[in-house]
Amino acid sequence: MTPPPVALGRTERFLRACRGDPVDRPPVWLMRQAGRYLPEYRRVRAGIPFLDMCRDVERAVEVSLQPLDLVGTEAVIFFSDIFVPVPPMGVKLEFAPGPVVAEPIRELAQVEALRTVEPLESVPFVFEILQALRRELRDRDVPLLGFAGAPFTLAAYLVEGQGSKDFGRVKRMMYREPELLRALLERLTEMTCAYLNAQIEAGAQAVQLFDTWAGLLGPEEYREWIQPTHQRIAAALDRARVPLLLYVNGGSHLYEIMADSGADVVSLDWRVDLARAAREIGGKVSLQGNLDPCALAAPPSAIRERVRALAAAAAPARGHILNLGHGCLPETPVEGVRAFTDAARALAPEA
Ligand code: CP3
What we know:
The chain is of the alpha/beta class. The protein is built from 15 helices and 9 strands.
């Protein structure tokens, strides 16, 4: 084994952790690190609809960068939403505050009417945001992350029409009208491959696939319906250049399958015993996670303890990226987020 290098730069530390190469300590960032818990975000966001803000290159770049200095995160994810590339396909949607679809997809004719679009033409602002961020971050040695929603999670909202506790409608479609759901997933998978590749072209140095709602399925259904979409996306990306991170919320019963998705990093929520996951799949993939976002309400000393415990639990894995188990919540104290990233920096290099 090569000895762990000392004091790596942020970009190299992150990319090495993704690939399972030795590092001095885990890198740290947070899902939803640019968001309403930051007064500075609320100021930029005031008086502008969410989707308009996603299209506003200057504002999007500004809020993407805010967490670096305000809370000390060590990667930047570009400010946007998983639904940004969807309206150009011909789907009317708005945010209130989550996505609301005007005409939920219930028939094959609606799937067939979806447009195949060239991301660079349909959402050019996304790539302008990424290029601008890459210029900003190069000198600061901070990795830039791209992302997309996974086909099932996008489909869940498109079929349901909006968020739901159990997404029963899309699950019933799986059993009653499998051909319809298959056709929809197919279109969304194609779009996602093109979208992520365009992000990589524009400068994303790693990309994360968010399959938030796939954890609602049991292992059999997950294997049949979800895994092939992830595997197709993993195969379509230029992975020699850019690692892929895969996040599923509520996926504690699925992580062994996730480890065979083709992703380099499996991102877990707080219901997972990280030590066990590290032993079981940590030889094959790196892990990301998995603090409960609510734990950031704890006093700084307790957060420091939790971070040490997470790092120790993940140690048997080939790589670990410190993160939350889901997005940072609007109620999160800023000091809690800062304590989280400070605690990561305070971790002693592994002997
Ligand atoms: O992580 C980041 O900071 C990058 C940006 C990002 C957002 N959403 C910004 C956002 C990312 C990667 C997402 C992903 C996303 N969006 C997912 C998958 C991950 C997850 O959180 O489960 C899903 C399911 C969505 C859909 C979505 N967008 C919902 C359900 C909501 C409403 C919930 C809420 O927090 O209000 C959004 C809105 C949204 N997306 C906000 C942000 C910062 C809040 C918008 C605001 O400022 O009002």
